[in-house]
Structure formats: structure tokens, C-alpha cells
Amino acid sequence: MRVMGVDPGLTRCGLSLVEGGSGRTVTALDVDVIRTPADLDLARRLLIISEAAEYWLDTHQPSVVAVERVFSQHNVRTAMGTAQAGGVIALAAARRGITVAFHTPSEVKAAVTGNGSADKAQVTAMVTRILRMQQAPTPADAADALALAICHCWRAPMMARMAQAEALAAEQKRRYEAKLKEQRKAGAKR
């Protein structure tokens, strides 16, 4: 599975590409941080991010894009910018028929470090270790984008099994309810 991890942001937007192998084996293929000047018009900033994401999508052809879900932030302006940056990337992926998955920061931290409230230094250290990198990825947005891709590689099989189990349970429930309905009809005819 080839996963493009996205740590969205208007000032710095982390992009990564990770290849998931068997088990928990993952390999980093590329990582970058797209920067936009704070004094630039919002629409132009989003265009720069969108164009970079489109280039990545066309060049790397990921099978899925994992984007950090904006969960909560104290600064509404920052949260809006983060959501907008993630939105233009999700849209670019959707236009190409690429699946988009959203993961909360605590899901990512828990997947990579085992602790849903780990700090950035812990995430960076674990990403460096998991990917067997010689140097820690910098800035933190690069490490976060890699962590998102790793998280998805590791969580996707479990999420697929859960979806399968839920679908099977729903089908069994439907059959059981249909059987009960038939039994009630048969009982009423007697």
C-alpha cells in the first residue's frame, strides 16, 4: 500500500509518501514541506498547496491519502486554515479517485508511539526509528506527515476487518429479522 501522509497547514503543509509492506514494515519514499507566506492572500496560499498536492498525487500515485483531521484547536483562525489546506488536498485526491482517510492527532500518536498524548519530540523520534532514518525529519511537519502515513498503513487492515465484521453482522441481523417476521406470519395464520 502506498500512502501519502498529509499534515495540513497554511504556513507549513507536510507531505510524505510511505510504502507499507507485510506486517508493520514501512518504507519512506519521499517527504517535503510546502510553505506559503503568511502575508499572501488566502486563495493564493490554498492554490500553492493544491498545486503541490496535485503534483505529488500525479507523480507518486498513492493508493490512499491520509490527512490529519482537525480535531480541536484553541485558535479558530489556525483551525480554519488547517481545515482548508486539508480540504484542498482531499478534493484533489477525490478528483483522481484516490481514497482519503482522516486520522485524529491522538490516533496518529497512539499508532506511532503507543501514547495518544505523546509530544512532537516523541513522535519524531519514533518516526525516525520506525523508518530507520539516519536523521530525524525536520521540521516537525515532515515528521507528522510521515507519522500519518505510518498510522494509516498500520490501521487500515484493522479498519477494513472491522468494516467487514460490521457488514457481516448487519447482514446476519437482517436475515434473523426476516426469519422472525416469517415465523410471526406463520404463527398468525394458524
From TrEMBL:
<dbReference type="InterPro" id="IPR020563">
    <property type="entry name" value="X-over_junc_endoDNase_Mg_BS"/>
</dbReference>
<keyword id="KW-0234">DNA repair</keyword>
<feature type="active site">
    <location>
        <position position="68"/>
    </location>
</feature>
<dbReference type="GO" id="GO:0005737">
    <property type="term" value="C:cytoplasm"/>
</dbReference>
<keyword id="KW-0227">DNA damage</keyword>
<dbReference type="InterPro" id="IPR012337">
    <property type="entry name" value="RNaseH-like_sf"/>
</dbReference>
<protein>
    <recommendedName>
        <fullName>Crossover junction endodeoxyribonuclease RuvC</fullName>
        <ecNumber>3.1.21.10</ecNumber>
    </recommendedName>
</protein>
<dbReference type="InterPro" id="IPR036397">
    <property type="entry name" value="RNaseH_sf"/>
</dbReference>
<dbReference type="GO" id="GO:0000287">
    <property type="term" value="F:magnesium ion binding"/>
</dbReference>
<keyword id="KW-0255">Endonuclease</keyword>
<dbReference type="Pfam" id="PF02075">
    <property type="entry name" value="RuvC"/>
</dbReference>
<comment type="similarity">
    <text>Belongs to the RuvC family.</text>
</comment>
<keyword id="KW-0540">Nuclease</keyword>
<feature type="binding site">
    <location>
        <position position="141"/>
    </location>
    <ligand>
        <name>Mg(2+) 1</name>
    </ligand>
</feature>
<dbReference type="GO" id="GO:0008821">
    <property type="term" value="F:crossover junction DNA endonuclease activity"/>
</dbReference>
<dbReference type="GO" id="GO:0003677">
    <property type="term" value="F:DNA binding"/>
</dbReference>
<keyword id="KW-0378">Hydrolase</keyword>
<comment type="subunit">
    <text>Homodimer which binds Holliday junction (HJ) DNA. The HJ becomes 2-fold symmetrical on binding to RuvC with unstacked arms; it has a different conformation from HJ DNA in complex with RuvA. In the full resolvosome a probable DNA-RuvA(4)-RuvB(12)-RuvC(2) complex forms which resolves the HJ.</text>
</comment>
<keyword id="KW-0963">Cytoplasm</keyword>
<dbReference type="InterPro" id="IPR002176">
    <property type="entry name" value="X-over_junc_endoDNase_RuvC"/>
</dbReference>
<dbReference type="GO" id="GO:0006310">
    <property type="term" value="P:DNA recombination"/>
</dbReference>
<keyword id="KW-0460">Magnesium</keyword>
<dbReference type="GO" id="GO:0006281">
    <property type="term" value="P:DNA repair"/>
</dbReference>
<feature type="active site">
    <location>
        <position position="141"/>
    </location>
</feature>
<dbReference type="GO" id="GO:0048476">
    <property type="term" value="C:Holliday junction resolvase complex"/>
</dbReference>
<comment type="function">
    <text>The RuvA-RuvB-RuvC complex processes Holliday junction (HJ) DNA during genetic recombination and DNA repair. Endonuclease that resolves HJ intermediates. Cleaves cruciform DNA by making single-stranded nicks across the HJ at symmetrical positions within the homologous arms, yielding a 5'-phosphate and a 3'-hydroxyl group; requires a central core of homology in the junction. The consensus cleavage sequence is 5'-(A/T)TT(C/G)-3'. Cleavage occurs on the 3'-side of the TT dinucleotide at the point of strand exchange.</text>
</comment>
<feature type="binding site">
    <location>
        <position position="68"/>
    </location>
    <ligand>
        <name>Mg(2+) 2</name>
    </ligand>
</feature>
<keyword id="KW-0479">Metal-binding</keyword>
<keyword id="KW-0238">DNA-binding</keyword>
<keyword id="KW-0233">DNA recombination</keyword>
<feature type="active site">
    <location>
        <position position="7"/>
    </location>
</feature>
<feature type="binding site">
    <location>
        <position position="7"/>
    </location>
    <ligand>
        <name>Mg(2+) 1</name>
    </ligand>
</feature>
